[in-house]
Write a structure and sequence with these properties.
Strand order of the largest sheet: 6-7-8-3-9-10
Distance between the termini: 49 Å
Number of strands: 21
Helix content: 25-40%
Number of helices: 18
Strand content: 25-35%
Low-confidence stretches: none
Largest sheet: 6 strands, mixed
């Protein structure tokens, strides 16, 4: 039995956990759900030793776990896959996995053997690994998460804790991953699944615990609940999704034009192959694809941090980009919230007069955006790294909207967001489009794209194609995302 008893933890003025009791049994998948900032990740960080509680204790099989010691938790058989991948960016994927349990430690480090063991395990999970000696900094967020899963499983853990592991998986990858969780359960392991995808929790979990504002508000089973009931327990009210069809205006003038955009790597292999598409004012255009098919490179080209090998991007007005990796590319976690907002030049201009920064004005702007976008934070002076993952994402969205761009390019914008926050972000995006803005939404979440996008494009193998307006069959679109030609 994995057990937490009366766990309390504060971060400054924020009470993250308030006397939480939690238990998970061998041979079960236990889903932990709750809105952003409810305390889910903090509770798991207590169990795996990353955070020491202010009071209370955690135990496995009746033996107390050493507080604040990841090494002791791992030795006890607890492995975790964190929401934000924790890998060494400048090391190869094989070197990162060698830091796990793949390296047998006999006769020196054998990276070829590490890679072979990792590829065998990855095949069981239903995905491939990159070619040899590729550094992690060149891989997508989804690929990073897969590497984290492999590294955690390489320790052959008794307890596997997964924090939002499926948020970047495409439909074609999800089934194999959920089957893997069931297999681990069948081996007698404890699997703790933190997720915002309630349908997923109901489909795969044996039991479900609901956290709200640092407290346990319900313990239930899939047979006793529903998505609607869980959503109401999480936030205390029903979540109303925006009516995208009713809010979708007629498109106006073209404000983003991409013509024959091509990007090749150092040896001439095409990452993007003659991409052509356009986005009009008032439109939300979606690009669906399995992560790692050129989406990140496309976003970098649109952000003007990378130059194409051929082709052209034409934009009427400013482009605001919301990258998928909020911790690495979107925010500076050691800076305060108001300082992160000033990283956007248009917001910096609002707080600057004759070349001088008006700090009070910047802080007031930040306070307004915290309230407007419901960012759960003590105030503008809070460090970005102190926010939950979902609230960091809200901060990114707030900064993009407050920059008053003509075009927003958003990559996996709702990764790690709860139902209420997802609905708010979708409503914000649709309001922006209704006011004449143009949105390019790039996501591996097909349900999200079908819910709010007018036109839908598919990217696979660096090539792009547009689907017909009436083509909304998730199974067919999922196959196209996975590379099927027709």
């Amino acid at each position: 039995m994995l057990r937490a008893t009366a766990i309390t933890r504060r971060f400054g003025r924020t009470l993250a956990l308030d006397g939480v009791d939690f238990e998970a049994r061998p041979g079960e998948i236990h889903a932990l759900v709750g809105e952003n900032g409810a305390g889910k990740t903090t509770l798991m960080n207590v169990l795996d030793g990353w955070v020491a509680p202010d009071s209370g204790e955690a135990s496995l099989d009746g033996k107390p776990l050493q507080p604040g010691s990841p090494r002791a938790a791992l030795a006890a058989g607890i492995a975790t896959v964190h929401q934000s991948p924790m890998l060494f960016e400048r090391m190869t994927w094989e070197e990162n996995l060698a830091l796990g349990g793949f390296d047998q430690g006999a006769g020196g480090l054998d990276l070829a053997d590490v890679a072979a063991r990792a590829r065998a395990l990855a095949a069981k999970l239903g995905f491939d690994l990159p070619s040899a000696a590729i550094t992690v900094e060149n891989r997508s967020v989804a690929e990073r998460v897969r590497l984290e899963v492999l590294r955690a499983l390489s320790f052959n853990p008794r307890v596997l804790i997964l924090d939002e592991p499926t948020s970047v998986l495409a439909p074609s990858e999800l089934t194999a991953f959920l089957d893997l969780l069931r297999k681990l359960r069948g081996e007698g392991r404890i699997v703790v699944l933190i997720t915002h995808k309630l349908a997923e929790a109901i489909a795969v979990a044996d039991r479900i615990t609901v956290l709200r504002r640092g407290r346990v508000v319900a313990r239930t089973t899939p047979a006793e609940t529903s998505e609607e009931k869980l959503a109401a327990l999480m936030i205390g009210e029903l979540v109303t999704q925006p009516n995208a069809a009713a809010m979708r205006p007629h498109p106006g003038a073209i404000v983003l034009q991409v013509d024959n955009l091509t990007l090749a790597d150092r040896i001439g292999r095409k990452i993007l192959d003659q991409l052509s598409f356009q986005v009009a004012a008032g439109e939300v255009v979606g690009i669906a694809g399995v992560d790692g098919n050129g989406q990140t490179e496309l976003v970098e080209l649109l952000a003007d941090v990378r130059q194409p090998s051929a082709g052209r991007i034409t934009a009427i007005g400013a482009i605001a980009v919301i990258p998928q990796n909020r911790d690495l590319d979107g925010l500076i976690l050691d800076m305060r919230l108001w300082e992160n907002l000033l990283l956007a030049r248009p917001i910096r201009d609002q707080a600057t007069s004759h070349g001088w920064l008006n700090t009070s004005r910047a802080i007031d702007l930040c306070r307004e955006l915290i309230a407007r976008f419901r960012i759960r934070a003590p105030g503008p002076e809070t460090l970005a790294g102190a926010l939950s993952g979902g609230n960091r994402q809200r901060l990114e969205v707030a900064r993009a909207i407050a920059s008053h761009p003509r075009v927003i390019v958003a990559h996996n914008i709702c990764r790690g967001l709860d139902l209420a926050a997802t609905a708010e972000v979708h409503r914000t995006i649709l309001d922006f489009a209704a006011a004449g803005g143009a949105v390019l939404l790039i996501s591996s979440d097909l349900d999200e794209l079908l819910a709010i996008c007018g036109r839908l494009l598919i990217i696979s193998g660096g090539k792009i194609r547009e689907t017909s307006p009436g083509d909304r069959d998730p199974e067919r679109l999922g196959l196209l995302m996975a590379g099927a030609r027709d």
